[in-house]
Specification:
It is a single chain. A 6-stranded antiparallel β-sheet has the order 1-2-4-5-6-3. It has 3 helices and 6 strands. It is globular and about 50 Å long. It is α+β, with helices and mostly antiparallel strands. It comes from Actinomadura chokoriensis. Residues 55-133 form the Thioesterase domain.
Length: 148
């Protein structure tokens, strides 16, 4: 199933502009650095309100960055009218991220996109280029209603 309809839809959302914001990405300040079929690169800069009790970036923030990049990578590969939802998210945290550690970059890439299930993987690196976390996801794909 090769399609760029999902990719075009994401490009249209981005063209609306950051000032309008969109969902959790706008809330966290996630930016999209690159969009192509099956691959999305997102980034965010940690803020003090992203902290956990230990003074480092909360794992939920990093997980959301991963879920966003991997989900959008799946989205770029879907046909017109199809949608998806995350069924499973597995995150491995490799190192703690200090709140003042600088920008985090996440690359999400598809592994498999089928009619009902899609899988993707993601990697987050810190400002120093070191791996912070990596993940995999399984998404359920909902095909468009053809009326048949």
């Amino acid at each position: 199933m090769e399609s760029t309809a999902g990719l075009e839809q994401l490009k249209e959302l981005l063209a609306m502009g950051v000032e309008q914001g969109y969902g959790v990405g706008a809330l966290l300040g996630i930016t999209v650095e690159s969009l192509e079929p099956g691959r999305v690169v997102c980034a965010l800069t940690p803020r003090t309100d992203f902290g956990n009790p230990l003074g480092t970036v909360h794992g939920g923030i990093i997980s959301t960055l991963l879920d966003s990049a991997m989900g959008c990578a799946v989205h770029t590969s879907l046909p017109e009218g199809a949608s998806y939802t995350t069924l499973e998210l597995k995150v491995n945290f490799v190192r703690a991220v200090p709140l003042e550690g600088g920008r985090l970059v996440c690359e999400g890439t598809t592994v498999h996109v089928g009619r009902k299930v899609a899988t993707a993987e993601g990697r987050v690196t810190g400002a120093d280029g070191k791996l912070v976390a990596h993940a995999t996801t399984t998404c359920m794909v909902f095909q468009p209603d053809t009326g048949a």
